[in-house]
Design goal:
This protein is an all-alpha fold. The chain is built from 12 helices and no strands.
């Protein structure tokens, strides 16, 4: 007796779109509305920050490991909010970098990388209560992000690279130095948004963990291209409405340019400068943003060079095999 294969019809485009809209409403819009009612706009920002950190950490390190890291993420977020952006924030980023870097000793660097992320990208708090609120909501958002990641197939544990004690100590110290140094540069120069200096360090380390080391060069080239493209706009000085339209269209194009990272990041940098610049300040915004990002990229390159040089020296001095990932 022959077997009849039944092929289920593919859902139509309209049906798929309806599924996407329903998912967005359930998983994003409703939680955002609830948080807006409870804590206002800052609460919504903290929630989505936590969701992004929780989901990313769960994808890189596993849902179970990221769940263990959530309390540290919430603490770092709260401390970052109360200390932003002064010398206490600098010390916090250095400490967070050390904690994350030391995680490579046990294969925990990927989820622990969310700790310096949480300390860097914060909404400055005017009181301890506001900082506590920010930290708690970021933590809750991280848990929600972990649940979403698990819902979409993230594994419980993803074993990261593991190094012996001397090499792990080197990674921890260098990571702390470049993160703290990047924050110190922004604070010392009184930049209003000093987090743009450590931003490329954290983003590029994330890409390195994903095996995309070439993004370092792409980010540097893209930043230079975006800054140069913004200079003619600064000279022409079009009205604010035109600037907004140009920045928005360029940002959408950047989202669609995924194959060539340098071009995508160049378009993103250009749109960022245009959208963030005050009227008549496009040139100033381009200069400041370009310097901040390129300084961060440069510090990361120096840090990687130091880690590789010291790692090679340690290996030649005491040749021990690296710890293999656990099964």
């Amino acid at each position: 007796m022959s077997q009849v294969n039944v092929v289920e019809p593919k859902p139509s485009g309209g049906r798929r779109l309806a599924h996407i809209v329903i998912a967005v409403v359930i998983f994003a819009v409703i939680p955002a509305l609830l948080m807006a009612a409870l804590a206002g706009e800052v609460g919504v920002s903290a929630l989505f920050t936590g969701v992004l950190l929780g989901g990313t950490g769960a994808k890189l390190g596993g849902t179970r490991r990221m769940l263990y890291v959530v309390p540290v993420v919430g603490l770092a977020a709260g401390l970052g909010a109360i200390s932003a952006y002064d010398w206490g924030w600098v010390a916090l980023l250095a400490a967070a970098g050390f904690v994350a870097g030391a995680g490579i000793r046990f294969g925990w660097l990927p989820p622990l990388l969310m700790v310096p992320f949480a300390a860097t990208f914060v909404s400055p708090a005017s009181s301890a209560d506001d900082a506590l609120t920010w930290g708690v909501i970021v933590g809750l958002g991280a848990v929600y992000g972990i649940l979403l990641a698990r819902r979409f197939g993230a594994p419980e544990v993803v074993e990261g690279d593991r190094l012996g004690p001397p090499a792990a100590a080197t990674v921890a110290i260098v990571f702390a130095a470049i993160l703290g140094g990047s924050a110190a540069i922004g604070v010392a120069l009184s930049w209003t948004e000093p987090y743009w200096v450590p931003e490329p360090i954290l983003i590029l380390v994330l890409y390195i963990l994903m095996g995309k080391r070439d993004r370092i060069r792409g980010k540097a080239i893209g930043t230079a291209v975006g800054v140069c493209a913004a200079l003619p706009v600064a000279i022409l000085a079009p009205p604010a409405a035109v600037l907004t339209a140009i920045g928005t269209v360029t940002f959408v194009i950047a989202l669609l340019e995924a194959k060539r990272y340098w071009l995508m990041y160049g378009l993103y940098t250009f749109s960022l400068i245009i959208l963030l610049a005050a009227p008549g300040q496009v040139g100033f915004e381009a200069e400041e943003r370009g310097v901040q990002i390129l300084v961060g990229v440069g510090l990361l390159v120096v840090g990687l060079f130091i880690v590789h040089a010291l790692g090679g020296w340690l290996q030649s001095r005491d040749p021990q095999p690296e710890l293999a990932p656990a099964n």
